[in-house]
Specification:
Blueprint: H1 7-22, H2 25-28, E1 40-45, H3 49-58, E2 64-70, H4 74-84, E3 89-91, H5 94-98, E4 105-108, H6 112-124, E5 128-131, H7 139-151, E6 156-158, H8 166-176, E7 183-189, H9 210-214, H10 247-251, H11 253-263, E8 273-275, E9 284-287, E10 293-296, E11 304-309, E12 313-317, E13 320-324, H12 344-354, H13 362-381, E14 385-388, E15 393-394, H14 398-401
Helix pairs in contact: 6-7, 7-13, 8-11, 11-13
Length: 414
Protein backbone atom coordinates (compact mmCIF):
# COMPACT_ATOMS: atom_id res chain seq x y z
CA UNK A 1 0.00 0.00 0.00
CA UNK A 2 1.16 3.56 -0.72
CA UNK A 3 1.94 5.45 2.43
CA UNK A 4 0.51 8.92 2.86
CA UNK A 5 2.49 11.68 4.56
CA UNK A 6 0.95 13.61 7.42
CA UNK A 7 0.53 17.39 7.27
CA UNK A 8 2.80 17.76 10.31
CA UNK A 9 5.57 15.68 8.71
CA UNK A 10 5.22 17.56 5.41
CA UNK A 11 5.63 20.90 7.18
CA UNK A 12 8.62 19.54 9.08
CA UNK A 13 10.29 18.38 5.87
CA UNK A 14 9.61 21.72 4.22
CA UNK A 15 11.19 23.53 7.16
CA UNK A 16 14.25 21.29 6.91
CA UNK A 17 14.57 22.06 3.20
CA UNK A 18 14.25 25.80 3.88
CA UNK A 19 16.99 25.55 6.48
CA UNK A 20 19.28 23.87 3.97
CA UNK A 21 18.82 26.72 1.52
CA UNK A 22 20.07 29.29 4.00
CA UNK A 23 22.90 27.34 5.60
CA UNK A 24 26.37 28.81 5.09
CA UNK A 25 28.28 27.39 2.13
CA UNK A 26 31.05 25.96 4.31
CA UNK A 27 28.47 23.75 6.07
CA UNK A 28 26.80 22.51 2.89
CA UNK A 29 29.22 22.12 0.08
CA UNK A 30 32.72 22.91 1.24
CA UNK A 31 35.09 25.19 -0.62
CA UNK A 32 33.48 26.99 -3.53
CA UNK A 33 29.86 26.01 -2.87
CA UNK A 34 27.44 28.88 -3.29
CA UNK A 35 23.82 28.26 -2.30
CA UNK A 36 21.12 30.14 -4.26
CA UNK A 37 20.34 32.32 -1.24
CA UNK A 38 23.95 33.18 -0.47
CA UNK A 39 25.47 36.60 -0.88
CA UNK A 40 28.52 36.52 -3.12
CA UNK A 41 31.49 38.50 -1.85
CA UNK A 42 33.81 39.90 -4.50
CA UNK A 43 37.37 41.15 -4.19
CA UNK A 44 38.74 43.42 -6.92
CA UNK A 45 42.39 43.26 -8.01
CA UNK A 46 43.12 46.38 -10.03
CA UNK A 47 41.13 49.57 -9.44
CA UNK A 48 42.03 51.67 -12.47
CA UNK A 49 39.78 52.70 -15.33
CA UNK A 50 38.66 49.18 -16.25
CA UNK A 51 38.32 48.20 -12.60
CA UNK A 52 35.98 51.15 -12.04
CA UNK A 53 33.83 50.09 -14.98
CA UNK A 54 33.59 46.53 -13.69
CA UNK A 55 32.83 47.83 -10.19
CA UNK A 56 29.88 49.76 -11.57
CA UNK A 57 28.69 46.66 -13.46
CA UNK A 58 28.77 44.31 -10.46
CA UNK A 59 27.82 46.79 -7.71
CA UNK A 60 24.07 47.11 -8.49
CA UNK A 61 23.47 43.35 -8.85
CA UNK A 62 21.35 41.90 -6.07
CA UNK A 63 23.06 39.30 -3.92
CA UNK A 64 26.55 40.68 -4.56
CA UNK A 65 28.81 42.66 -2.27
CA UNK A 66 32.23 44.11 -3.06
CA UNK A 67 34.05 43.53 0.20
CA UNK A 68 37.68 44.12 -0.77
CA UNK A 69 39.89 45.81 -3.34
CA UNK A 70 43.58 45.88 -4.08
CA UNK A 71 45.91 48.18 -5.99
CA UNK A 72 49.51 49.30 -5.89
CA UNK A 73 48.39 52.89 -6.59
CA UNK A 74 46.93 54.19 -3.32
CA UNK A 75 44.96 57.11 -4.76
CA UNK A 76 43.21 54.79 -7.23
CA UNK A 77 42.45 52.28 -4.50
CA UNK A 78 40.96 54.96 -2.25
CA UNK A 79 38.90 56.32 -5.13
CA UNK A 80 37.54 52.84 -5.89
CA UNK A 81 36.54 52.08 -2.31
CA UNK A 82 34.97 55.49 -1.76
CA UNK A 83 31.82 54.58 -3.69
CA UNK A 84 31.47 51.20 -1.95
CA UNK A 85 31.88 52.55 1.57
CA UNK A 86 33.53 51.14 4.68
CA UNK A 87 32.56 47.57 3.77
CA UNK A 88 35.27 47.60 1.07
CA UNK A 89 38.56 46.70 2.75
CA UNK A 90 41.63 48.03 0.89
CA UNK A 91 44.76 45.93 0.32
CA UNK A 92 48.14 46.85 -1.13
CA UNK A 93 49.23 43.34 -2.13
CA UNK A 94 46.78 40.99 -3.83
CA UNK A 95 48.12 37.97 -1.89
CA UNK A 96 46.72 39.54 1.29
CA UNK A 97 43.31 39.83 -0.34
CA UNK A 98 43.41 36.17 -1.43
CA UNK A 99 43.95 35.09 2.17
CA UNK A 100 40.49 36.38 3.17
CA UNK A 101 38.24 33.31 3.42
CA UNK A 102 35.07 35.38 3.20
CA UNK A 103 35.87 36.38 -0.41
CA UNK A 104 34.20 34.03 -2.89
CA UNK A 105 35.59 35.38 -6.16
CA UNK A 106 38.06 37.88 -7.49
CA UNK A 107 37.74 40.30 -10.39
CA UNK A 108 41.14 40.78 -12.04
CA UNK A 109 41.45 44.08 -13.93
CA UNK A 110 45.21 44.58 -14.04
CA UNK A 111 47.59 44.87 -17.00
CA UNK A 112 48.10 41.61 -18.90
CA UNK A 113 51.55 40.85 -17.50
CA UNK A 114 49.94 40.13 -14.09
CA UNK A 115 46.96 38.01 -15.21
CA UNK A 116 48.52 34.54 -15.09
CA UNK A 117 50.13 34.90 -11.66
CA UNK A 118 47.04 36.37 -10.07
CA UNK A 119 44.62 33.89 -11.64
CA UNK A 120 46.70 30.83 -10.72
CA UNK A 121 47.13 32.01 -7.12
CA UNK A 122 43.41 32.85 -6.90
CA UNK A 123 42.50 29.35 -8.07
CA UNK A 124 44.88 27.85 -5.51
CA UNK A 125 43.20 29.98 -2.84
CA UNK A 126 39.79 28.56 -3.77
CA UNK A 127 38.42 31.71 -5.41
CA UNK A 128 36.29 31.81 -8.53
CA UNK A 129 37.67 34.20 -11.11
CA UNK A 130 36.53 36.93 -13.48
CA UNK A 131 39.58 38.02 -15.46
CA UNK A 132 39.78 40.76 -18.03
CA UNK A 133 40.77 40.07 -21.62
CA UNK A 134 43.13 39.41 -23.24
CA UNK A 135 43.46 36.51 -20.86
CA UNK A 136 47.21 36.03 -21.02
CA UNK A 137 50.42 37.60 -22.25
CA UNK A 138 51.76 34.30 -23.59
CA UNK A 139 50.30 30.96 -24.68
CA UNK A 140 51.98 29.02 -21.87
CA UNK A 141 50.62 31.41 -19.23
CA UNK A 142 47.12 30.92 -20.61
CA UNK A 143 47.47 27.15 -20.42
CA UNK A 144 48.71 27.41 -16.82
CA UNK A 145 45.63 29.48 -15.96
CA UNK A 146 43.29 26.95 -17.58
CA UNK A 147 45.01 24.03 -15.85
CA UNK A 148 44.83 25.73 -12.44
CA UNK A 149 41.12 26.50 -12.86
CA UNK A 150 40.42 22.88 -13.81
CA UNK A 151 42.55 21.42 -11.02
CA UNK A 152 40.89 23.51 -8.32
CA UNK A 153 37.39 23.32 -9.87
CA UNK A 154 37.03 27.08 -10.25
CA UNK A 155 34.37 28.93 -12.20
CA UNK A 156 36.26 31.26 -14.55
CA UNK A 157 34.71 33.96 -16.73
CA UNK A 158 36.89 35.75 -19.29
CA UNK A 159 35.94 39.40 -19.77
CA UNK A 160 35.09 38.90 -23.46
CA UNK A 161 31.69 40.48 -22.95
CA UNK A 162 30.80 40.50 -26.66
CA UNK A 163 29.59 36.93 -26.11
CA UNK A 164 26.82 38.44 -23.99
CA UNK A 165 25.79 40.95 -26.67
CA UNK A 166 22.77 40.10 -28.87
CA UNK A 167 24.28 41.20 -32.20
CA UNK A 168 27.30 38.92 -31.82
CA UNK A 169 25.22 35.97 -30.63
CA UNK A 170 22.89 36.47 -33.61
CA UNK A 171 25.82 36.54 -36.03
CA UNK A 172 27.23 33.34 -34.53
CA UNK A 173 23.87 31.56 -34.72
CA UNK A 174 23.35 32.65 -38.33
CA UNK A 175 26.71 31.09 -39.17
CA UNK A 176 26.24 27.96 -37.06
CA UNK A 177 22.84 27.36 -38.73
CA UNK A 178 24.29 27.68 -42.23
CA UNK A 179 22.52 30.85 -43.35
CA UNK A 180 25.56 32.10 -45.28
CA UNK A 181 26.45 28.62 -46.46
CA UNK A 182 29.94 27.27 -45.89
CA UNK A 183 32.28 29.87 -44.43
CA UNK A 184 35.31 30.28 -46.70
CA UNK A 185 37.12 33.41 -45.51
CA UNK A 186 37.05 35.72 -42.51
CA UNK A 187 38.52 39.22 -42.28
CA UNK A 188 39.32 40.69 -38.87
CA UNK A 189 39.81 44.48 -38.84
CA UNK A 190 41.86 45.54 -35.82
CA UNK A 191 45.11 47.42 -35.16
CA UNK A 192 48.64 46.06 -35.16
CA UNK A 193 51.18 44.33 -32.91
CA UNK A 194 53.08 45.87 -29.97
CA UNK A 195 56.31 47.85 -30.24
CA UNK A 196 59.41 47.98 -28.00
CA UNK A 197 58.97 50.21 -24.96
CA UNK A 198 59.97 53.76 -25.95
CA UNK A 199 58.39 56.19 -23.48
CA UNK A 200 60.73 58.60 -21.61
CA UNK A 201 61.49 58.08 -17.93
CA UNK A 202 59.49 60.10 -15.37
CA UNK A 203 59.43 60.42 -11.60
CA UNK A 204 57.32 57.75 -9.90
CA UNK A 205 54.37 59.18 -7.89
CA UNK A 206 54.86 58.83 -4.14
CA UNK A 207 51.73 56.69 -3.72
CA UNK A 208 52.57 54.21 -6.51
CA UNK A 209 54.56 51.05 -5.76
CA UNK A 210 56.29 50.78 -9.14
CA UNK A 211 58.20 47.59 -8.35
CA UNK A 212 55.00 45.79 -7.40
CA UNK A 213 53.25 47.19 -10.49
CA UNK A 214 55.97 45.52 -12.57
CA UNK A 215 55.58 42.33 -10.55
CA UNK A 216 56.72 39.36 -12.69
CA UNK A 217 58.51 41.65 -15.19
CA UNK A 218 62.06 42.89 -15.38
CA UNK A 219 62.48 46.58 -14.61
CA UNK A 220 61.39 49.28 -17.04
CA UNK A 221 61.25 52.93 -16.04
CA UNK A 222 58.00 54.62 -15.08
CA UNK A 223 55.99 56.83 -17.41
CA UNK A 224 52.53 58.14 -16.51
CA UNK A 225 51.09 56.87 -19.81
CA UNK A 226 51.49 53.31 -18.51
CA UNK A 227 49.32 54.09 -15.50
CA UNK A 228 47.44 57.41 -15.93
CA UNK A 229 46.15 59.29 -12.91
CA UNK A 230 42.46 59.36 -12.03
CA UNK A 231 40.53 61.58 -14.41
CA UNK A 232 43.08 61.37 -17.24
CA UNK A 233 41.13 60.57 -20.44
CA UNK A 234 44.05 58.45 -21.65
CA UNK A 235 43.71 54.68 -21.45
CA UNK A 236 46.85 53.09 -19.97
CA UNK A 237 49.22 52.52 -22.87
CA UNK A 238 51.00 49.49 -21.38
CA UNK A 239 49.10 47.35 -23.89
CA UNK A 240 51.07 48.94 -26.74
CA UNK A 241 54.47 47.67 -25.61
CA UNK A 242 56.17 44.28 -25.80
CA UNK A 243 56.46 42.55 -22.46
CA UNK A 244 53.47 44.46 -21.06
CA UNK A 245 50.79 43.87 -23.69
CA UNK A 246 50.23 42.49 -27.17
CA UNK A 247 49.16 45.64 -28.99
CA UNK A 248 45.78 45.85 -30.66
CA UNK A 249 46.34 42.32 -31.95
CA UNK A 250 45.58 40.94 -28.49
CA UNK A 251 43.59 43.88 -27.08
CA UNK A 252 40.82 44.13 -29.68
CA UNK A 253 41.84 40.76 -31.08
CA UNK A 254 40.73 39.13 -27.85
CA UNK A 255 37.24 40.37 -28.73
CA UNK A 256 37.17 39.81 -32.47
CA UNK A 257 39.19 36.61 -32.75
CA UNK A 258 36.99 35.37 -29.91
CA UNK A 259 33.83 35.80 -31.97
CA UNK A 260 35.45 34.05 -34.94
CA UNK A 261 36.46 31.15 -32.71
CA UNK A 262 32.90 30.96 -31.33
CA UNK A 263 31.28 31.12 -34.76
CA UNK A 264 33.54 28.39 -36.15
CA UNK A 265 33.03 26.18 -33.07
CA UNK A 266 36.75 26.34 -32.25
CA UNK A 267 36.63 27.06 -28.50
CA UNK A 268 38.98 24.12 -27.88
CA UNK A 269 41.22 24.61 -30.89
CA UNK A 270 42.43 27.31 -33.28
CA UNK A 271 44.23 27.92 -36.60
CA UNK A 272 46.88 25.44 -37.69
CA UNK A 273 48.93 27.73 -39.92
CA UNK A 274 50.10 31.34 -39.67
CA UNK A 275 51.59 33.17 -42.67
CA UNK A 276 53.04 36.70 -42.34
CA UNK A 277 52.62 39.38 -45.04
CA UNK A 278 55.06 39.12 -47.92
CA UNK A 279 55.01 35.31 -48.12
CA UNK A 280 52.68 35.11 -51.12
CA UNK A 281 49.98 36.83 -49.01
CA UNK A 282 49.20 40.53 -48.61
CA UNK A 283 47.90 40.28 -45.04
CA UNK A 284 48.71 38.11 -42.04
CA UNK A 285 46.86 34.91 -42.88
CA UNK A 286 45.64 32.21 -40.50
CA UNK A 287 44.34 28.87 -41.75
CA UNK A 288 42.06 26.47 -39.89
CA UNK A 289 42.17 22.71 -40.43
CA UNK A 290 38.64 22.83 -41.89
CA UNK A 291 39.84 25.10 -44.72
CA UNK A 292 38.61 28.45 -43.41
CA UNK A 293 41.11 31.25 -44.06
CA UNK A 294 41.20 34.21 -41.67
CA UNK A 295 43.15 37.40 -42.41
CA UNK A 296 44.17 40.35 -40.27
CA UNK A 297 42.87 42.91 -42.71
CA UNK A 298 41.27 46.35 -42.71
CA UNK A 299 38.12 45.92 -44.81
CA UNK A 300 36.91 49.45 -44.13
CA UNK A 301 35.14 48.89 -40.81
CA UNK A 302 37.31 49.31 -37.69
CA UNK A 303 37.01 46.75 -34.90
CA UNK A 304 34.86 44.52 -37.05
CA UNK A 305 34.63 41.06 -38.60
CA UNK A 306 33.58 40.03 -42.10
CA UNK A 307 32.45 36.42 -42.59
CA UNK A 308 32.26 35.35 -46.24
CA UNK A 309 30.30 32.20 -47.04
CA UNK A 310 29.19 30.40 -50.18
CA UNK A 311 25.69 31.88 -49.84
CA UNK A 312 26.15 35.21 -48.11
CA UNK A 313 28.19 37.62 -46.00
CA UNK A 314 28.01 38.90 -42.44
CA UNK A 315 29.76 42.04 -41.17
CA UNK A 316 29.61 42.56 -37.44
CA UNK A 317 30.68 45.41 -35.16
CA UNK A 318 29.40 46.41 -31.75
CA UNK A 319 25.70 47.18 -32.05
CA UNK A 320 25.83 46.84 -35.83
CA UNK A 321 25.04 43.80 -37.97
CA UNK A 322 25.08 43.97 -41.80
CA UNK A 323 24.11 40.89 -43.80
CA UNK A 324 23.86 39.72 -47.38
CA UNK A 325 21.11 38.71 -48.04
CA UNK A 326 19.84 41.75 -46.11
CA UNK A 327 16.86 39.87 -44.64
CA UNK A 328 19.19 37.75 -42.51
CA UNK A 329 19.74 40.63 -40.08
CA UNK A 330 16.10 40.29 -38.95
CA UNK A 331 16.27 36.55 -38.31
CA UNK A 332 16.46 35.72 -34.61
CA UNK A 333 14.85 32.27 -34.40
CA UNK A 334 17.16 29.33 -34.99
CA UNK A 335 17.18 25.56 -34.83
CA UNK A 336 20.69 25.40 -33.37
CA UNK A 337 21.55 27.66 -30.46
CA UNK A 338 24.72 28.71 -28.69
CA UNK A 339 24.99 29.57 -25.01
CA UNK A 340 22.65 32.48 -24.23
CA UNK A 341 23.85 35.24 -21.93
CA UNK A 342 22.50 38.78 -21.99
CA UNK A 343 24.58 40.03 -19.05
CA UNK A 344 28.22 38.98 -18.77
CA UNK A 345 28.44 39.74 -15.05
CA UNK A 346 25.20 38.08 -13.98
CA UNK A 347 26.18 35.10 -16.10
CA UNK A 348 29.39 34.71 -14.08
CA UNK A 349 27.48 34.88 -10.80
CA UNK A 350 24.90 32.35 -12.03
CA UNK A 351 27.69 29.99 -13.02
CA UNK A 352 29.16 30.36 -9.54
CA UNK A 353 25.88 29.34 -7.97
CA UNK A 354 25.30 26.50 -10.43
CA UNK A 355 28.97 25.42 -10.46
CA UNK A 356 28.78 25.46 -14.25
CA UNK A 357 30.76 26.95 -17.12
CA UNK A 358 29.92 30.58 -18.00
CA UNK A 359 29.54 31.88 -21.55
CA UNK A 360 33.24 32.75 -21.87
CA UNK A 361 34.92 30.13 -19.73
CA UNK A 362 38.66 29.79 -19.25
CA UNK A 363 39.34 27.40 -22.15
CA UNK A 364 37.53 29.61 -24.67
CA UNK A 365 39.31 32.68 -23.31
CA UNK A 366 42.67 30.96 -23.49
CA UNK A 367 42.16 29.79 -27.06
CA UNK A 368 41.05 33.22 -28.26
CA UNK A 369 43.99 34.93 -26.55
CA UNK A 370 46.28 32.34 -28.12
CA UNK A 371 45.24 33.38 -31.63
CA UNK A 372 46.45 36.92 -30.92
CA UNK A 373 49.63 35.75 -29.21
CA UNK A 374 50.46 33.43 -32.11
CA UNK A 375 49.75 36.19 -34.62
CA UNK A 376 52.25 38.42 -32.80
CA UNK A 377 54.89 35.68 -32.91
CA UNK A 378 54.32 35.40 -36.65
CA UNK A 379 54.74 39.16 -37.09
CA UNK A 380 57.96 38.99 -35.02
CA UNK A 381 59.62 36.12 -36.87
CA UNK A 382 58.29 36.99 -40.35
CA UNK A 383 58.23 33.35 -41.41
CA UNK A 384 55.32 30.94 -42.00
CA UNK A 385 54.54 28.81 -38.96
CA UNK A 386 52.55 25.61 -38.52
CA UNK A 387 50.75 25.14 -35.21
CA UNK A 388 49.51 22.07 -33.36
CA UNK A 389 46.46 23.23 -31.35
CA UNK A 390 46.33 19.94 -29.43
CA UNK A 391 49.91 19.95 -28.15
CA UNK A 392 50.03 23.78 -28.28
CA UNK A 393 53.43 23.75 -29.93
CA UNK A 394 54.78 24.81 -33.31
CA UNK A 395 55.80 22.14 -35.78
CA UNK A 396 59.58 21.99 -36.22
CA UNK A 397 60.38 25.54 -35.11
CA UNK A 398 62.20 25.73 -31.78
CA UNK A 399 62.77 29.47 -32.17
CA UNK A 400 59.02 30.06 -32.31
CA UNK A 401 58.42 27.66 -29.40
CA UNK A 402 60.66 29.81 -27.18
CA UNK A 403 58.27 32.72 -27.73
CA UNK A 404 55.36 30.78 -26.25
CA UNK A 405 56.51 31.83 -22.77
CA UNK A 406 58.59 34.57 -21.14
CA UNK A 407 61.01 35.01 -18.31
CA UNK A 408 59.24 35.87 -15.05
CA UNK A 409 60.65 36.79 -11.67
CA UNK A 410 60.88 33.67 -9.52
CA UNK A 411 58.52 35.00 -6.85
CA UNK A 412 55.70 35.38 -9.36
CA UNK A 413 56.46 32.70 -11.94
CA UNK A 414 53.76 30.23 -12.98
Amino acid sequence: MKKTISRRKFIGNAATLSAILILPRHVLGGKGFVAPSDQINLGFIGTGRRGLSLRDSFFPIEGVKITAACDVYTSKLDNFCKKIGTSCVPYHNFTELLQQKSIDAVVIATPDHWHATMAVKAAEAGKDIYCEKPLSLTVVEGRKMADAAAKHKRVFQTGSMQRSAPEFRQAVELIRNGYIGEVKTVKVSIGGPPVPYNLPAETVPTDLDWNLWLGPNEFVHYNHELNPVIGDPLWGRWRNFKGLGGGDITDWGAHMFDIVQWALDMDHSGPVEFIPPGNDVKHLTMKYANGVIMTHEDFGKPHGIQFNGTEGTIEIQRKKLVTTPEALKDKTTFEKHVYHSDNHYKDFLKAMRDRSKPVSDIEAGHRSASVGNLANITYDLKVPLKWDPVKERFLNNKTADKLLFRKMKKEWAV
